[in-house]
Each structure stands twice: as structure tokens, then as C-alpha cells.
Amino acid sequence: MIKLANTKTTFDRAVIVPGLSFIIGICLLSVLFPNPTETVLNRVKEFIFVNLNWVYVWSVTIFVIFLIYLMFSKYGDIKLGANDSIPEYSFFSWISMLFAAGMGIGLMYFGVAEPMSHYATDAFDANLYVNKAKNAQLYTFFHWGIHAWSVYGLVGLSLAYFTFRYRLPLSLRSCLYPLLKDKINSNWGTAIDVFALCSTFFGITTTLGFGVIQINTGLKTLGILPGTSFVYQIGIVIVLVMLAIFSATSGLDKGIKILSNINIGAAVLLLLFVLAFGPTVYLIGSFTEGLGNYINNFFNITFNTHVYDQATLPWFYNWSILYWAWWISWAPFVGLFIARISKGRTIKSFVAAVLIVPTLFNFIWMSIFGNSAIWTDFNVAEGALSRLVNNPDALMFAFLQYLPLSTISSTLVICIVIIFFMTSADSGILVLDSIATKNSSRSPVWQKIFWGVLLAVLALMLLNAGGLKALQTMTLITALPFSLIMLLFVISLMKALAIDYEYYQRSFSVSTVPWSGEFWKTRLSQMVSKKTRRSVEDYINVTVKEAFSDLQKEFALNSIHVKISSGTDPVSLEIEIEHNIINNFKYGVRCQEKLVSEFLMEDKNLPDINEKITYYPKSYFGDTREGYDVQYFTKNELISDVLKHYERFFAIISEEANEMFITSNANINKHGA
């Protein structure tokens, strides 16, 4: 029994008030003035798609390259959470949930419709059946493959990383923390959350609206409902949203997880049915060839803007650019949901699974359903399916009529669409509530019911007034600014990962290596004392200078000339041993500055630090290797460190294999390069 006794809200007013105002305002415009609203929004969309399509192309391309780089980089083993965290869900349940939320209804709706649309188009002037079928499969793979999942993957990875690793709120604003720091809690952060709320709501509403139409069409095909009037759609929405609300209030483990597992099983069963009763050998061969065709043309289609082929530009805007905008507009919703279920996985496993597993399943699905429909249309249906490309709601059911047990398979399709509808709706309800409450874990049940009812009411209003297309256009327009925000996610995540990796990989200070623990009180005093530029200058002019002078005298006793001089930096000192052929040996110490963390400045249990910049003596070498902090070295320890590097230098120059490297200066002088 659902308890509604707790009426206290956890909504964040700064997010919910402007967000709901914009959502309801746009929906009312689409309902009251559907045609004028759609006309205006279409003009805006057309301007963006025609003049700024390159923004979408480059954005999606960067997302793909960045995620693939992370998968193979040194950052791949970083966990989305603490180093000892483990995944909360099994791999199958995890994949099922992210798949159901991300593309479930879309696959059922476009599994036959999109390949048939590409097959039937005259955009590419491909008169031969072979060319038309290959183009249909190639571009369907392109739109539903790695590029699409890289959009979801980037947002999901950023959210999961900053939420579970940095312990920030599960909010889009958290993804910009390395760039904005505490400003994520300012108006900028609130604006991002409002945008995410609106984009998520619009995307879910339009998708659910189209899902209801497909369910209604399927029920009519089976003779369960006599027509597709609005009255029947009201009944379908009420029943399904009630079930979605019940699932959402049951929690991830009980509701969405169980439904997702059931539906993936049902989808695989339907897939195997079409494979078995369709042109099996043709389907297996076409999938194999299609996969190779996709790999061979990957870079070509990725960067292709069709600028040299004006005749294909309308197709390019209405398919590729529309898809990139659609995936980007859905990214806040799907990314938030993926992040919620991905705690404990490594970046490598996350990216590999999100990019490869759903993509491979999409390819298999589109190959079997799309190629079966194309083969049937050419060999059996005599073009009947091609003539239905403008009625995508009915295409799946029309195709199944040419296979055995069409009533059973159509019923299974409706069941799958219904469950996908529910998983999209209940995961959408959870995400909307998470955004509106800044990821509060104590939201009352009535808030989830509120989102479900609002989704149902506005979807029905738009269906009745014919305003769904206007809202869909609005959703596509919002993708442009969010694509720019996502590019900032790339920069922010890269910056955070670099800091993260250095933090966990950093070893003890080099100054601890030669230290035996003697004079530990002096060492402690140095560690907690304030470091000024003057104190570093004194260290270089006294300790470093004495150490270098002692070394110079000792080297002279061994007939080795050593030069001590000021370096190129204002405050520095270096010791150098010159050679005629090989590179000189050089060891220097310079005054280096660094920024102090604001947290360190505010911590009451640490030394009083009032300035943002502190200073320390840093070593440097003649071969441009990275130096290190030597502020705790005594004179003898510094002498020992110089000799350690000289021994390394002597060992390197003694090896013949290093001749080219160690004589680089001589080579430059010799050849004038």
C-alpha cells in the first residue's frame, strides 16, 4: 500500500519553479496553438540544422574519440566510487536497465521503420536493390551505434564519476566542478539543472506519446481495439502510467530491474523468432557484411557533412543531424539513470560495456528486423512495405503479417513495447524527481506520483491537439546548447582524472628516500611552517650553495672541472660538468611557486596560511626530466642526491646504445639543425 501521509516536499524551489513554468508554458503553446508553434519552432530547428549542423557532427565525434581514449588510457582502472567499491548490480541486470531506459521503445518503433525509410529514399540515387539495401543498413548502424551510445556514455560517466568518486550530488552541475568549483551551487549550476529538467521532461513526453500510438496501432491490428481514436489512447496512458508509478515507487531493485530483465528476455525471444522464420542465411550474411561495411566506412560517415552533394542535404538534416540532436537531448535523462546504476565499475568496463554491448545488440536487432523487412518487400510483398514508410506506427505489425504465427508475434511486440514504455516512464519519473530535488534520497511518494500524472496529462493533451511534433522540435532545439555543455564535461572530466591519477599514484616525497629519521623535530618544524619566497631564497643561497661548493672541491680533487652558476630563473643555482662531445651533466635548484588549496587555507587544524601562493625549492636537470621538491634536504642529503643523478648519468653515457641520445647537442651543432 502506497502511503501518502508525508506531504512535506523535497523539491528545490530554484529548480522546480522555473522548470515547471517553462515546461507547462511550452506544452500549453503546443496544445493551444499547435500549428503556429510548430511552424516557429521548425524554422528555428531548420536554421540550426542547416547552419550549425557541424556543431553536432564535431561534438558527437569528440565524444566517441574521448571515450575510446579513456578506455585504453591509464585512467581506465579508476573506479566510479571508492577504490574498494563493487558494482551494485549484476552485469546482465545493469545492461538490461541502461538499455531499457536508453533505446527500448525506439528499437521497437524504428527496427523496421528506419531501414525501410533509407531503403525507399531516392536521396542517394541508388537504383539497384543491393546498393539501396546496403545503404539502409549502413546508415541505420551509424545512427544507432557507437556514436549514439557515446553521447549517453559521456554524461553517464561524468555523473557517476563526480557523484561516487568526488561524493558530489547526482546532478549535471556536479560534472563541471573542476571548472566552477563551489560556483556549481550558484545560479550557473541551477540553470544547468533547470535545463536538464526541461530537456528530460520533453524527451520522455514525446517518446511516450509516440509509444502510445504504436501500442494503439498494434491493438487495432490484433482486433483487440476497434480503432485508434483518442478515447482508446486515454485508456492506454492511464493504465500504463499507473503501472509505471507503481514500479517507480517500488524502487530500482524491485521495479525497473525486474521489468528490464523480463523485457530483454522477451526481445531476444522475438529476435530469434524472426531469425528462424525469416530468410535466416540471408540475415546472417547481411549482418556480417553490414558490420564490415560499417567498420570500413566508419570515419567517412563520421565526418561526412554532405557538403559536396547538395541533393542529399535534406536527408542529412532529417536523419543524421536529427538523430544527433535527439540523442543529445535525451542524454540528461539516460545519463542520470545510467549513473545511478553504475557505482563500483571501472571507467574501462563502463565505457566498453556502454559503447560495445548495446551497439552490438542494436546492430543485430536492426539487421534481423530491417533486412528481413527489406528482403520481404523486394521478394514477397512487391513493394507493399515500402509504401508504408510514412506510417511507421504500423510498419512493424505489417511486416510480421508475412511471417508465421503473426498474431502471437504481434502480441509479443505489444507486450515488449508496453514494458519498455513502463521502464522509460518509471526511470523517467525517478530521474525527474532526482533533478528537481538535487538528488534527495528522502522524497515522499506523492512526488513520484506527481511526475507520473503530469507526464500522462501533458502527453494526452499533446496527443489530442496534435502538438507532439512541436514538442519534439523543441526538444531537438535544446540539444544545441547542451552539446556545448557536454564539451565542457569532456574538459572537466579530463582535468579531474589527471588529478585523481596523480593523487593515487604519487609516491612518498623524494626527500624521504635518503632520510634516516635523524633530526626529526627539525623536519616536522619545516613541514608545518609557512613557506615564503624569502625562506626559499635563503635555502638556495645557504644550504644549496654550500652543498654545491663542497661538491666542486671534491670533483676538482678528481681532476673534474665543475662550474657553479645562477640558472635562467631569477632565484636558482646550478652545478654543471661540461663535456666536449656528450651532453653536459647539470643539476640545479630553483624557486618554484604553487597555488594553495582553498580548503587548506580554511582548515583550522593546519598552519595559518593567508596567501594563495606558496613557494618551495625544486630540482631540475639538464635532460629536461621533471624535478621535485628538495626543501627538506640537509646539505649532506642534497650532496647525496646530486651524486645519485651523476651516477645515473655516468651509467647512461657508458652504454653504446645511448650514443645518439646523449650526443644530441653535438649533433645539433654539427648539422646545424
Automatic annotation (TrEMBL):
Q: Which topology term describes how it sits in the membrane?
A: Multi-pass membrane protein
Q: Which GO terms describe its cellular component?
A: plasma membrane
Q: Is the Cell membrane keyword given for this protein?
A: yes
In its UniProt entry, the species of origin is given as Dyadobacter sediminis
Q: Which UniProt keywords apply?
A: Cell membrane, Membrane, Transmembrane, Transmembrane helix, Transport
Stated name of the protein: BCCT family transporter
The subcellular localization recorded is: Cell membrane
Which GO molecular function terms does the record list?
transmembrane transporter activity
Q: Where are the transmembrane segments?
A: 12-33, 53-72, 92-112, 141-164, 188-210, 230-252, 264-284, 321-339, 351-374, 394-421, 449-468, 474-498
The main location is membrane
Q: Has keyword Transcription?
A: no
Tell me, what's a Pfam family for it?
A: BCCT
Signal peptide boundaries: none
Q: Which family does it belong to?
A: Belongs to the BCCT transporter (TC 2.A.15) family.
